[in-house]
Specification:
Blueprint: H1 7-15, H2 19-53, H3 62-71
Length: 72
């Protein structure tokens, strides 16, 4: 198994790369983060739809929701 690098060690290693390579790496990381967030959102939507189809969700106004929170 690979040794775990600290963020500082990673940054030091990246700083040794050519500027173009640093820029490309930055874009790759940015795109991976965007994709990971998209995947999380898709998962949350699927879970919400499943709960809705099973009748596990409620409905009402924001006022109703806040009242319900106060009563808990």
């Amino acid at each position: 198994m690979m040794d775990q690098m600290t963020i500082n060690e990673i940054l030091e290693t990246v700083s040794k790369l050519k500027l173009d390579d640093q820029s490309m790496l930055s874009e790759i990381i940015r795109n991976r983060v965007i994709e990971a967030k998209r995947d999380e959102l898709v998962k949350a939507v699927r879970e919400s739809r499943a709960e809705y189809s099973k009748g596990l969700t409620g409905h009402g106004s924001v006022k109703d929701f806040l009242k319900e929170l106060e009563n808990e």
